[in-house]
Amino acid sequence: MTAKTVHVVITRQDGPFSEPYEEAFRVPWRPSMNVISALMEIRRNPVNQDGVETTPVQWESVCLEEVCGACSMLVNGKPRQACSTLIDSLEQPVRLAPLKTFPCERDLMVDRQRMFDALQKVKAWIEIDGTYDMGEGPRMPESERRWAYELSKCMTCGLCFEACPNVHDRSTFIGPAPLSQVRLFNTHPTGSMQANERLEAIMTEGGLTSCGNAANCAEVCPKEIPLTHSIAQLNKKATVYSFKRFFFQ
């Protein structure tokens, strides 16, 4: 009886400036196998389906439980998290490729610096100087805490960037996740002290007006974050802020 195998076709790239190419592998199947498990089999025995020894495939992963967001890639053409994508749920051959929105570093590894720069632009953090104990922070009303917690699940995986048609190499759009983080930090009692600065940041080029409302981002988000709802709420906040700025400054 022939052992069951998984047919994996990987789009590989030897370096940032190399041309991509495809390489196929056959790995032993086992129950409850995820994409990361298949990649680990290839790394353990880097021999392609033609029996030729090759270089181990490079990819990123840390937590292996859909928390860190590092293992984002295209799985059969769809942006997915490799750790939570089960092989048995996929059509074979399983085709793996790096995200196209970000520059490829090598094989399935990409440089997500664009996303981190966007988070820095909108000040997606709470400013405290850390020089003394400030005591317990202010409490959020439960009605706000519940939905804010959903926004805080963002793990900067970059899948929303990949799915968004407005994020590409000719666009300055900061992307869905950073916009959602603006709403999160502007809601926080301490973070709201910089609310106007964040609104100013998303009202410039590449901000709110660059969103085409395709809603692809919410569809692919592994954490089911209501990204489009956050963007709609930010549009309302930005409109009110722009009127106040015009009439009272």
UniProtKB/TrEMBL annotation:
<keyword id="KW-0001">2Fe-2S</keyword>
<dbReference type="InterPro" id="IPR009051">
    <property type="entry name" value="Helical_ferredxn"/>
</dbReference>
<keyword id="KW-0411">Iron-sulfur</keyword>
<keyword id="KW-0816">Tricarboxylic acid cycle</keyword>
<dbReference type="Pfam" id="PF13085">
    <property type="entry name" value="Fer2_3"/>
</dbReference>
<dbReference type="InterPro" id="IPR025192">
    <property type="entry name" value="Succ_DH/fum_Rdtase_N"/>
</dbReference>
<keyword id="KW-0560">Oxidoreductase</keyword>
<protein>
    <recommendedName>
        <fullName>succinate dehydrogenase</fullName>
        <ecNumber>1.3.5.1</ecNumber>
    </recommendedName>
</protein>
<dbReference type="GO" id="GO:0008177">
    <property type="term" value="F:succinate dehydrogenase (quinone) activity"/>
</dbReference>
<feature type="domain" description="4Fe-4S ferredoxin-type">
    <location>
        <begin position="145"/>
        <end position="173"/>
    </location>
</feature>
<dbReference type="GO" id="GO:0046872">
    <property type="term" value="F:metal ion binding"/>
</dbReference>
<dbReference type="InterPro" id="IPR036010">
    <property type="entry name" value="2Fe-2S_ferredoxin-like_sf"/>
</dbReference>
<dbReference type="GO" id="GO:0051537">
    <property type="term" value="F:2 iron, 2 sulfur cluster binding"/>
</dbReference>
<dbReference type="GO" id="GO:0051539">
    <property type="term" value="F:4 iron, 4 sulfur cluster binding"/>
</dbReference>
<keyword id="KW-0408">Iron</keyword>
<dbReference type="InterPro" id="IPR050573">
    <property type="entry name" value="SDH/FRD_Iron-Sulfur"/>
</dbReference>
<dbReference type="GO" id="GO:0009055">
    <property type="term" value="F:electron transfer activity"/>
</dbReference>
<comment type="similarity">
    <text>Belongs to the succinate dehydrogenase/fumarate reductase iron-sulfur protein family.</text>
</comment>
<dbReference type="InterPro" id="IPR012675">
    <property type="entry name" value="Beta-grasp_dom_sf"/>
</dbReference>
<dbReference type="InterPro" id="IPR004489">
    <property type="entry name" value="Succ_DH/fum_Rdtase_Fe-S"/>
</dbReference>
<keyword id="KW-0479">Metal-binding</keyword>
<dbReference type="InterPro" id="IPR017900">
    <property type="entry name" value="4Fe4S_Fe_S_CS"/>
</dbReference>
<dbReference type="GO" id="GO:0006099">
    <property type="term" value="P:tricarboxylic acid cycle"/>
</dbReference>
<dbReference type="InterPro" id="IPR017896">
    <property type="entry name" value="4Fe4S_Fe-S-bd"/>
</dbReference>
<dbReference type="GO" id="GO:0051538">
    <property type="term" value="F:3 iron, 4 sulfur cluster binding"/>
</dbReference>
<keyword id="KW-0003">3Fe-4S</keyword>
<keyword id="KW-0004">4Fe-4S</keyword>
<dbReference type="GO" id="GO:0022904">
    <property type="term" value="P:respiratory electron transport chain"/>
</dbReference>
<dbReference type="Pfam" id="PF13183">
    <property type="entry name" value="Fer4_8"/>
</dbReference>
